[in-house]
Amino acid sequence: MGLNGVLASISISDGIGVTFSAVSLALPVTMIVALLAALSVAARASGAAGPLVRSAGRSGRAVPPVVTGCAIAVVALLTGETNIAFIAAAAMCAVCLPGVTTDLVEVFSSTEARQLLYAALAAGASPQYVALIVHLRASVRNVVAIALRTAARMSVDAGVLVVALAGAGTAERTSAGVGSMPDVSALPFAVSQFFAAAVAPGSHIVLLRAASLVVFVLVLHAGARLLEGEPYRSLPAQ
Amino acid sequence: MTSVRTAGQEAKLALTDLRASRAGVEVLRGVSFTLPAATSLAVIGGAGSGKSVLLRAMCRMLDLDSSWRVLGSIKVDGEEVLGDAIDVARVRRRLGLVFSQPAVLPMSVFENVIFGLRAMGVRDPRALEDAYERAMRRVMLWDQLGRQPSKTPTDFSFEVRQRICIARAVALEPQALLLDEPCAALDPVATQTLEDMLSRLRRECTLVIATNNLQQAARLSDVTCFLERGDVVEIGDTPVLFSRPSDLRTEDFLAGRVS
Fold first, then answer.
1. Domains of chain B by range and CATH?
2. A199 CA: distance to closest CA in chain B (Å)
């Protein structure tokens, strides 16, 4: 069976386990690091690091995922790391961290958030206390929504990154005389669906696979949309 | 220094040559006065005169923006407030600041009122309940809301929210309460209700009220300070300042003559 035959036999659910592992590794790490950075900026507890975090977020957003992915692929090859979920998770952390941090900083830096910050500080609270008790409480739904959007992005972007990784790995195995057939069922969900669609474009199953990917991402975005609201909405509308 | 201290009374607040500047532009130019306990001071002046900056400088809120530089001396009960070694959170608890917009926190009425105490580390439920009741009585909300501590403040009017904010400051038993245009977001009826509450509060607590409302300043204060571009033009007993201002600029401002 050639490569096309293998890819065509991918089932709709193939790769979900890998995607789940990669996202469940990357998402908590990304969210925790981004939250700490954003809260410290919002609570003015980061000192000189605040502007740095903001500008790093803005700059980081401009880097295409594939650039970060290729960089991670090179590192993975050099270090000999072969766990595809782990590599994808590391890549996702690097790709998503700046954007997520910037999103959270924006949530915590709205006019309403600043008013609450000042009110809480005027009551003698420390910036750290305000960050945990006021900011998180006021915007917990938005934080979860950002997490869901990030999960959606990771689920798709992981595919793009793994294409680079799989390509590099295949080339390496081929040059070493090892069979070059990738284990497609182990590729992340998005990649396996893309591959399957690519090798059998006329098949009705292709539509189903494309639809399954779109539905998967839309469900995450819909969840985010449902959750996110007006943060700090305890404040009066003027 | 302008003193409004009366015989036999200790100075609760003493400001000496207080200067505040932002990015090299001086916004307060050497404000000095002393204020005895249980006295209310109204700070009046046009936009940009430095009223809000004065209040924020007093409770170290300008520290939140590193572009501000504050010099001089502020003493509360003889204790210096300015300086790097000062516990800023303690200063803010001693000088409760209330903003013009009622910024209620995203939690229940009870949690809002005892927020500062919790932040201080008070955990005893009995002490917190006592402080809640005391504060709610002082802002005249106990009968209306006292027994509904789990309600959300956003269920209530602006005026009630503002009183909840004042209760949050009062619960900390501050040495002075700083009110930055507390009625700016309120209609005349709500303003009247809030003023009634503040009139009662001023008998037991030192108040400093920055306001654009001259009638309100006359009604609520014992002493009035007129600021113009960061300078104290005149400070003195409210009835005297309003009826016989000693400076032409004060007279013009009170008469609405803008040069």
1. 2-255 (3.40.50.300)
2. 54
Residue type, B21: S
Whether residues B104 and A122 touch (CB distance < 8 A) is answered with no
* A3-227 to CATH, choices 1.10.540.10, 3.40.1170.60, 1.10.3720.10, 3.30.750.24: 1.10.3720.10
The pair of three-digit structure tokens given for residue B231, joined into one six-digit string: 């300078």
Cβ pair A234:B104 closer than 8 A? yes
The Cα–Cα gap between B2 and B210 comes to 18
Identify the DSSP state of B98.
E
**Tens-place pLDDT, residues A155-195:** 877 666 666 555 555 555 555 555 445 565 666 677 666 66
- In Å, how far is A36's CA from the nearest CA of chain B? 19
**Residues B137-153, mean pLDDT to the nearest whole number:** 86
Residues in chain B within 8 Å Cβ distance of A233: 106, 154
State whether residue B218 sits within 8 Å of chain A by CB: no
Cα distances from A182 to residues A57, A159, A168, B153, in angstroms, run 35, 14, 11, 60
Q: In Å, how far are A139, A149, A209, A212, A213 from A219, measured between CA atoms?
A: 21, 10, 15, 10, 10
Q: For tokens 């113009």, what's the residue?
A: B228
Query: What's the whole-model pTM score?
Result: 0.74
What would the mean pLDDT of A98-125 be, rounded to a whole number?
A: 86
Determine phi and psi for B71, rounding to 5 degrees: -130, 160
Nearest CA to B223 among B5, B19, B45? B5
Closest to A192 measured CA to CA, from A166, A159, A214: A159
Q: How many Å apart are CA B155 and CA B132, to the nearest integer?
A: 19
Nearest CA in chain B to A137: B106
**ipTM, 2 dp:** 0.86
Within an 8 Å CB–CB cutoff, is residue B236 touching chain A?
no
Helix axes A16-42, A189-199, angle to 10 degrees: 130
CA dihedral B206, B212, B215, B219 (to 10 degrees): -10
Extents of the domains making up chain A = 3-227
Q: Are A94 and A107 in contact (CB under 8 A)?
A: no
- Are B95 and B76 a contacting pair, CB within 8 Å? yes
For residue B2, the cross-strand partners are B33
With beta carbons under 8 A apart, name residues in chain B contacting A120.
105, 115, 119
- Sequence-distant (6+) residues with CB within 8 A of A218 are none
